[in-house]
Design goal:
With 416 residues, the protein is of the alpha/beta class. Among the domains are: 53 residues; 125 residues, Rossmann fold (3-Layer(aba) Sandwich); 88 residues, OB fold (Dihydrolipoamide Acetyltransferase, E2P) (Beta Barrel). Helices cover 61% and strands 13% of the residues. The protein contains 16 helices and eleven strands. A six-stranded mixed sheet has the order 6-10-11-9-8-7. It has a five-stranded parallel sheet with strand order 3-2-1-4-5. α1 packs across α3 and α6 packs antiparallel against α7. The relative contact order is 0.05.
Length: 416
């Protein structure tokens, strides 16, 4: 609020000052106008009022835009822009003298200023756009000087026997420069630096285990608005949401203390958007980084906008153990199945195992042999049978004997 008030005062003073300066500069013409003092005061008051109203729009918004642009800009781009600006101003200074001599249409009075602005803009634009080429030229000059010095040193020592080694080193240097040239031209993927973390990935908790394995490269960035959403969930009146939020805060604390992956709490925000998912996508596009999440909708929206998404659910599905028919394993029977005599157990990753004739072993662990693996839309389902023929009590033989038909019916239901 204080900044807006100051900008309004500055606009008021600027509006009045411009009118007074014009009146003083053209005093000979102004004094010929009837009632010129009153007319000058009215115009000055109108311009001051206009500056008072338009001050925040003219001062605050452009300054915020410039600060935001500088904050998200690359250091190399800033240095290149400053270098281009200096070169442009030097060229404009050299053009000032000949341009100021032009008398036609009073070009000499305003054309130097226009030339300075154009040269500055062109210098900044060319320097930023051609930065990779300038870096490549500088690297070539540096490598050329280093090779020349190395050659003179070797010639002074009379190391004729090292010519083959020198040729190999030169070839390696040329290959390294070729790889660097391809990288600067964008033909090789950049190494990941930052990964934005979504609220769902933090609450899920598996991100901490993944971080301990070292599979995540770069820095995990948790924006402030994600942390605020997590705190809002932890303060919810609903006990389930409250427990999920507190679990997320504990997982974030564990990420910072126990994993080797660096974690950064960032104050960066996406202007003009209010939803957390939209802010994450906008920041990822600005930073050219990826998002780690479990949210299916965020995964699709980010993918449509060209943002790389690291989905923990997809990773868990990809690393599930592959079981083939005939393999043996141990499973704990938890409940009975839908068909007669079936028992159901689960692997550590949640995959369901249907054991024919396993109902009588509920609550115990049974060695089974895999008979079939079925992939459905909901996931994988494994059918198995006991490794050794179970001791079936009297009266249950028909159920066990029909296990093949039960498996077929269960398979058809799973496929549907």
């Amino acid at each position: 609020m204080k900044v807006r008030r100051i900008s309004r005062i500055v606009g008021l003073i600027a509006g009045i000052g411009i009118v007074i300066a014009l009146a003083v500069g053209n005093g000979a013409v102004v004094t010929r106008v009837p009632y010129w003092p009153i007319l000058t005061a009215v115009i000055a008051a109108a311009c001051g009022l206009l500056g008072f109203i338009a001050g925040p729009m003219v001062i605050i918004k452009p300054s915020r835009w410039v600060f935001e642009l500088i904050r998200h800009a690359n250091v190399g781009d800033i240095l290149a822009g400053v270098s281009g600006l200096i070169v442009g101003l030097i060229i404009a200074a050299l053009l000032t003298l000949p341009l100021s001599q032009l008398k036609f249409l009073a070009l000499g009075s305003w054309l130097p200023t226009v030339a300075a602005l154009l040269c500055s803009a062109l210098g900044v634009t060319i320097a930023v756009q051609m930065k990779p080429e300038f870096i490549r030229l500088a690297a070539n000059w540096g490598n050329r000087g280093a090779r020349r010095a190395e050659k003179l040193e070797r010639e002074g020592e009379g190391a004729d026997l090292l010519e083959d080694g020198e040729d190999a080193e030169r070839r390696a240097g040329r290959e390294a420069k070729g790889r660097e040239r391809l990288r600067l031209r964008g033909k090789t993927p950049p190494t990941p630096d930052r990964v934005l973390v979504d609220t769902s990935a933090i609450i899920d908790g598996r991100i901490a285990d993944i971080g301990q394995t070292g599979f995540i490269s770069g820095t995990l960035v948790v924006p402030r608005f994600v942390l605020e959403e997590l705190q809002h969930i932890a303060d919810s009146s609903d006990s389930l949401r409250r427990n999920r939020g507190r679990r997320g805060l504990d997982i974030l604390n564990r990420l910072q203390k126990e994993t080797t992956v660096p974690v950064e709490i960032s104050d960066a925000d996406a202007e003009g958007t209010h939803e957390v998912d939209a802010k994450l996508v906008k920041l990822a596009r600005q930073w050219h980084c990826s998002i780690i999440t479990n949210d299916f909708n965020l995964n699709r929206v980010a993918g449509l906008q060209g943002v790389k998404v690291l989905n923990i659910n997809e990773l868990a599905h990809a690393v599930k153990p592959i079981l083939l028919p005939g393999e043996e394993m141990s499973v704990k029977i938890i409940q009975d199945g839908k068909e007669l005599g079936q028992g159901v157990g689960y692997l550590d990753d949640g995959t369901m195992i249907v054991v024919e004739g396993g109902k009588q072993y509920i609550g115990g662990t049974l060695d089974v042999t895999v008979t079939r693996v079925l992939q459905t839309i909901a996931g994988r389902m494994i059918f198995a049978q006991p490794k050794s023929a179970p001791n079936v009590p009297n009266g249950t033989g028909s159920g066990t004997g029909s296990s093949g038909s039960g498996s077929t019916i269960a398979t058809r239901r799973a496929e549907r």
